[in-house]
Amino acid sequence: MRILLVEDSVRLCRSLQSGLGRLGHAVDAVHDGQQGLSYARLNPYDLLVLDIMLPGLDGISLLRELRAIGRDVRVLLLTARDAVVDRVAGLRAGADDYLVKPFAFEELVARVDALGRRAREGGHPVTRVGGLRIDTVARTVHRGEREIVLSRREYQLLCCLASRAGELVSRTEIEDRLYGEDDFPASNVVAVTVSGLRGKLAQAGAEGLIETRRGLGYRFGAAP
Asked: What pLDDT, on the 0 to 100 scale, is given for residue 149?
């Protein structure tokens, strides 16, 4: 998932960003509410991990502004306040879950995973496109009875393209979806991942699904 972490403790922020990154998530991190709101408005995050006590703009106000403009990103609140009134305020503002500080990293990961599953299940857990069956809960891809084993990046790329089937998706859009701003992917990383994905699809009899438009991007084609 692509995650935005808004936490004013630089030490905690770095620790969470590093830990979530090792688990395969693309994590952007900022330390104040105004910057967090700007990032959340401009980028397609799957999850927002949001501290309540922030400089500039508190987490509850940030969340309310996001919901007011129609952003339905999943939100996990981090709070040092364990009073019922504070938890209720966060949930009423539009949070999906909350976690009281101090917490174990393993519990944060469990809640992040649960929100990710909920987001996928809330849509269409199984997508059928281009002759493929993509199960976003099990994170598997099949053509007929044959499973196509993909790397994490290849799977993320496939989901990105398949969710926009028939549309042109630029390299920049793909990078924004697959990487955090601190990952600094090499200039050819998307092309390399596309090549690997194409090869595995072709081996499963699904050739020609990804069209390259030189200088413009990629398009996921119709079912063969």
From this structure: 93
- Tell me the one-letter amino acid at 177: R
The identity of residue 185, as a single letter, is P
Q: Cα separation of 111 and 98, whole Å? A: 9
Residue 140: which pLDDT band, with cuts at 50, 70 and 90? confident
Cα torsion 160, 164, 168, 172: sign: negative
pTM over 0.70: no
Phi-psi region of 168 (alpha: psi -120 to 50; beta: other; left: phi over 0): beta
Amino acid, res. 17: Q
CA distance 210 to 158: 9
Sorted by where each starts, the structural domains of the chain and their CATH numbers stand as 2-122 (3.40.50.2300), 126-220 (1.10.10.10)
Q: Which residues pair with 217 in a beta bridge?
A: 213
Phi first, then psi: give them for residue 77, nearest 5 degrees.
-85, 135
Burial tier of 119 (Cβ tally within 10 Å: 0-12, 13-18, 19+): middle
